[in-house]
Amino acid sequence: MKRVYVNEEWCLGCHLCEYQCAFANSGETDMVKALKGVKINPRIQVEEGDGVNFAVQCRHCEEPLCVKGCISGALSIQDGVIHLDENKCVGCYTCVLMCPYGAIMPGNGTAVQKCELCLNNSCGEPACVKGCPNAAIVYEER
Question: Residue ranges of the 4Fe-4S ferredoxin-type domain (predicted)?
Answer without folding.
Answer: 2-31, 80-109
